[in-house]
Amino acid sequence: MVTRALDVTSRLRQMVLAGELAPGLHMTEAMLAQRMNVSRTPVRDALRILANENLLSYSPNRGYVVRRFDLKDLLDAYDVRATLEAMACRLVAEQGLSAEAGAELDALMVRGDTLLNGPDWAVEQHRDWGELNRAFHFRLLDLAGNRHLAEMAGQMRRLPRLRDPRLAPASSLFQTIYPRDRARASHQEHREIIDAIRNGQGTRAEALMREHVWRNREALRHSLPHLAAEGPEVDN
Predict the structure, then answer these.
(1) 96 burial class (0-12, 13-18, 19+ CB within 10 angstroms)?
(2) What is the pLDDT of residues 139-150, one digit of tens each?
């Protein structure tokens, strides 16, 4: 059962990620409580949680403010992700992949094969691919068995949307940055990572995941002139 505090936290987090609460916005408990039609107590708890997630900044004089993230923040987040997710792959390979976990990963690959080789590739298919991709990455993080590692990697994965809400995985702009060919290449990289893990090749699995995240980082970095032309100004 979802408590009121968890519900308010989830709603407030989504408002930040969707850009409904703009970067730099100063927020008060009273303002949010009125907007969300709840009491101030769950709002107070939610603000603390989102500050711990680095979605908000806090100072004694100003209170809570929606954080601003520049280009360097975004690219740095990819670098941290690469290190954390690569470490997760090494841990899974060293611990050994169970038959059940291996079957789960194989099922994701089969679903990806069907999706990526189907006749259509529009926003709906791209959204489905984004969900499969997310499931693959988070399943490996879960299998590593390190809660702190998974939580930190999750925070890093949210930064692109905070930098620019148009970078949500289901957006048309995201589809432009990561087209079908890149999705297919990424899917093949997933297969190679699974093979290395299944064979107990921890160092290889770690290197493959690091390279995999780096390629996505570079795809985004090379798209920045387009981003600047189409929407919010990109910091240099």
Answers:
(1) exposed
(2) 999 999 999 999
